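Researcher: Re-running this chain for the archive, since the previous output was lost when a drive failed. Same request as before.
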Amino acid sequence: MTAELVRGQNHPLSVARLEIRVSASHPVVAGATLADADGRIPGAEWVAHPASPRVPGLEVSRQAAAGHRLAVDLDALPEAVHRVNVLLALPSGGNGPASFGAMAAPFLAVTGTDGAEIASYTVTDLDAESAVVALELYRRQGAWKVRAVGQGYAGGLTAMLHDQGLSGAAELAASIDEAVAQGVARAVSAPPAQRTGGGTGALRTAPAGGAAADGRDTGAAARAGPAAGQGPGTGGSGAGAAAAQPPAGSGPISYRHPGRSTSTPPEPAPAAPPAEPGQPSRPVAGDATGWSMEERLYNQVWGMFEDLARTTAAYRSAVDFAESRLEQELDRVLSDPRTRVGPAADAAREEARAKQAQLVEQARSVLDRDLAQLVAEAEVVEHALPAAFARWDSPVWQGYQVPLERPMALRLGDLHLPERRDLRIPMLVRLPLQRGLWVDSGRAQGGPEAGLLDSAEMRRLAVDCAVAHAVRLLAVHSVGDYAVHVIDPAGAAGSALAPLLEQGALREPPAAGAQGVSEVLARLTRRVDLVQMAVRSGAVESLPPDLDTGEHLLIVNDFPHGFDDRAVTQLRYLADEGPSVGVHLMMVADREDARAYGPVLDPLWRSLLRITPVPDDHLADPWVGHAWTYEPSLVPVGSDVMRQVLWQVGQARKAYGI
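Model: Regenerated structure tokens:
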């Protein structure tokens, strides 16, 4: 089955000899660059382009065309090559469009030499860019994968080549433009499409247009936070960035950085230390694509998440196969009267069990090898994570300072599988939050603590968990950009909320009673209404001057106590419409307590991301669907780190007069 990739997603390559087919609505230049382990091009001889179409293991076309077939032989690439970047550029000085935003989205397909499609990618969300890195073939742990990149450059080929560390980028770009111009002068009408035959050695021009050039549906599930979320991507800031991204479940996620500039090259990826002969490469933090170290680490965490999901799926599949084979062989023995009893039957059974044990042992050895590599990578990555991605016990929090801008993601906890419980993958969700959070105060269902805690203790832990997440959200936003409101109808969360009150992190005391609930919901509902109307009518400047346009988090404790029908309707409205304009919801509730409302609240629960205050098996990955054990990100017992962080936030607020 073909993998229809979205930006940031990767897919393993099962064959070494490939064709990369390009289809566009207007003639484009197709080329490729070979890069080392650091993602840099050592010299112009590592670039395949119309003026020099062949490099070892790679061949591209000699002229601009609407269709291309690039030939790749991964086994023939030099040992020093770790990445192959497939690039597209618009011819300069022609009569065609000046940017990719003025034409239909280009479509690329990675196929085997027999024409069987392995993966495809439609390069969407381009605007003023005239050059783009469309795909990346990269080597990871000895195996090759393809990743959809879609990184555009308004500065054209020069900016793209300079971004990959090539000295003399402007001169090489000029030689490519000259070769393309000469090719246009020699070109004749494109021949009819040849849909069959052809290997990697012969490159033929496809007809203009291409069936998928104008936007093939890439409806594969995107990574977000994880997914699913989705896959690795970037984030912007402010309510406008939230509005620019589709809500969860509405389609592929945009991985474009809203504030990204194409004129400044990204930070180079850190160089991996040399490995011992015959040993896997040593892991290095930030060994992933990205515009910044934060983005590289985010993508690397998601890559580890996917690798663990898939390698575990392969192991479980092998074990299931071994069990199935054992059952078949035992059935065969029992179905034959001659071998049903006696020494022959015993020997046949022992042989079948030995085969089953051998298959399981082989599968386990492969799993242990992959898990050991992931454990080593996780240890390296964990120590390099910024505060927003790090655990509360990380040393990075000891040197915490209020940031100047919001990070792209936030850590909500850890995920692990039973095959290796000490291998924990950070659960990162994109900011701004696209879904509200539901901290479940009900009895744990599938975790190790299920049934061990009474309802009162679960409620206390749930409130502590919500406060820890709220403090983290406050800490990773710049001063004045994030406000926290609390609805606590019965005042049951007083002790847990004390740190927020002591340091002035709450703009007003927690709302109590029916009147307090009504006032807070009415104020936030009004804000959502006004901002939505202003955005839709293009009149943001007409918003009332006293309206706070920063991000808001509403914590609701002990729902549905203290909520009448009107308040419930307003809460559902905030859950559905609030994230698009910067109003986010965090509910601390037991779903069983809300049964009295009947199915009217089912859409509310479905719209929220359920997390638990204790380990619980309730989250699934977007690739295989394993049941992952989620562990919340909590402050260690006896640690004062949360109060220290809140003190820093409070001091920054005072300095700015907030």
